[in-house]
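Record 1 of the preview.
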Amino acid sequence: MSRDSATRSSRMVLSDHVRPTRSRGVRAYRLGDETLLYAPASQTAHAVNAPAMAIWELSDGSRSVWQIAEELGRWVDRPAAELLADVKHGISQLTALGLLHAS
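->
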């Protein structure tokens, strides 16, 4: 993916009701505090931190963006509304890298 297309994708506008899904074939490899996500379609690997990994794991198509924020909020004892912008940003970034589909 080119830098321009990654930038455009990272600026995508997400509805709270979108149900993101993990891209097919992406594999996760734990490396200490980070996880390496390998996308065979693009033959790229990306090191992601714990918050990004949590978003990726929760993006199984069964939860909306809002529900992902709610679940993360329960984990960190914060309201979903406070986390929503960060969750949307994380989903946009993971989508730009080809690790999620959020349409």
